[in-house]
UniProtKB/TrEMBL annotation:
Protein name stated in the entry: Circularly permuted ATP-grasp type 2 domain-containing protein
Domain Circularly permuted ATP-grasp type: 70-446
Pfam families noted in UniProt: CP_ATPgrasp_2
Stored InterPro entries: ATP-dep_Glu-Cys_Ligase-2, CP_ATPgrasp_2, UCP005522
Domain of life: Bacteria
Length: 470
């Protein structure tokens, strides 16, 4: 399989946008690079940038490996990606508004109604609720891969509680600290203003009539795998980091307990899933949420970001319909393509998938983080047969996609510099008035040779992402 290399063309020549960096890399002694790598590891340990590990080593936390070869994107390429992501997130928000109001797309038969209304992430309690600005997904993480001859594809949309932006910001800070001379040579677009942009977007969706809103970040607590990010973003935005027990509801209004007495809360950037948000409305055994918060939300007295019920739009069973949403709501051709997808609930698709398991990637429709999936070409016969039984037993629970020839980029590994596969997660912010993003995103890299799974929880690392301004 031929893979598109981000730095080198098919003839081994250096791509134009990498020439400055490659010349620096060639002229830099390997010992200096190794010293800087060790310095980065030490600094990340000190800051506490870790990620909880699940599965075999459950309960452990480890450092997310950081690679010092940046992923560089030329300005023209980024502008096209940016247009595509704006279009996509705008359509997804219109879809969410529609399915919780008039359901025009379902009446038009563009998406089977049962796929939406029977979806585990669809929240009937949100029907008819008018959210500020019509925005459900204020923060979206759009996973983009490059394959084939260099075409970009959207692999999935993350609209519930997309994570990883803190690593994007810390990676940039680290690269600027280690190699300031590189930023003097290259016009790299800044990303450090992301927290300011996020706070501005959150304040913009405050309940009607609130001119100076109080914003908080709601975390499940210190044992959550992304707790570093929750505390980091609260600190960077200058807002309070709270847990469910720090909040209470009175007269359908949310308050925060403070040493000066109760303080009204207007906007909550939540990092807790729907099911755990309100024990009176969802899971009664949840100790993470706030009793009565759903009623305050339905009354329009507090904004939740992202909205309850947003998850239906990032479910993998809905993903294949996003191009149809773009055409239906915007009357435009999709700028960014989906990966071709087989819906196993369809008889013909299932038959094809079962006949080609060794060639395909199979994913659980509700799965995340690289779990609950089969990468056919990298799997054993036993693993393939296990998935065959799962698919036959519950075909509607899975989709399948071709194994993409993900692009690769030179990466520092134990044996030196070698190509490793990667993806990109830009973070798209919406307030209703506009859709914005900082130029760049989180580049995740599969550090295991030949691996196509880039998730941090599965052993992946991260790179700084440079969008060039010239």
């Amino acid at each position: 399989m031929n893979f598109y290399n981000e730095m080198y063309d098919a003839n081994g020549g250096v791509r134009e946008h990498y020439k400055g960096y490659e010349a620096w890399l060639t002229a830099t002694p390997p010992e200096r690079i190794e010293r800087k790598r060790a310095e980065a590891d030490l600094a990340f340990h000190r800051v506490g940038i870790t990620f909880a590990v699940y599965g075999e080593e459950a309960g452990k936390e480890r450092l997310i490996p950081f690679d010092i070869v940046p992923r560089i994107i030329p300005s023209k390429e980024w502008k096209s990606l940016e247009r595509g992501m704006r279009q996509r997130v705008k359509a997804l928000n219109m879809f969410l508004w529609d399915i919780y109001h008039d359901q025009e797309i379902l009446k038009a038969g563009k998406i089977p109604a049962e796929q939406v209304l029977n979806n585990a992430q669809y929240r009937a309690v949100m029907h008819g609720v008018d959210v500020p600005g019509g925005v459900y997904a204020h923060i979206a993480g759009v996973d983009i891969v490059r394959a084939g001859e260099g075409e970009f594809y959207v692999l999935e949309d993350n609209l519930r509680v997309p994570s990883g932006v803190s690593y994007m910001l810390e990676d940039r800070k680290m690269m600027m600290r280690l190699f300031p001379e590189l930023f003097a040579r290259h016009k790299v677009a800044p990303v450090q203003h992301y927290p300011d942009m996020l706070l501005e977007k959150l304040r913009a969706v405050a309940p009607q009539g609130i001119t100076d809103p109080t914003v908080v970040v709601l975390t499940p607590g210190a044992y959550n795998s992304a707790y570093f990010e929750h505390s980091f973003l609260a600190q960077q935005m200058g807002v309070e980091l709270v847990e469910g027990r720090d909040l209470f509801v009175k007269n359908e209004t949310v308050y925060m307990r403070t040493t000066q007495g109760p303080q009204r809360v207007d906007v909550i950037y939540r990092r807790i899933d729907d099911d755990f948000m309100d024990p009176l409305a969802f899971r009664a055994d949840s100790a993470l949420g706030v009793p009565g918060i759903l009623k305050a939300y339905q009354a329009g007295n507090v904004t939740l970001s992202n909205a309850i019920g947003t998850g239906v739009a990032d479910d993998k069973s809905i993903y294949p319909y996003v191009p149809d949403m773009i055409r239906f709501y915007l009357d435009e051709a999709p700028i960014l393509n989906n990966v071709p997808t087989y819906m196993c609930r369809k008889k013909d698709d299932l038959a094809y998938v079962l006949d080609h398991l060794s060639e395909l990637v199979v994913k659980e429709v509700h799965g995340a983080g690289g779990y609950g999936m089969l990468v056919g070409p990298a799997s054993t016969k036993e693993q393939i047969e296990h998935f065959r039984h799962l698919l036959i037993a519950k075909p509607e629970g899975y989709i399948a996609q071709p194994t993409l020839a993900l692009s690769n980029c030179p990466t520092f590994v134990e044996e030196g510099i070698a190509p490793r596969h990667l993806d990109l997660r830009p973070f798209v912010l919406s307030s209703g008035k506009c859709v914005d993003m900082v130029p760049g995103g989180l580049t995740r890299v599969a550090l295991t040779k030949g691996s196509l799974v880039v998730n941090s929880s599965q052993g992946g690392g991260t790179k700084d992402t440079w969008v060039l301004e010239d």
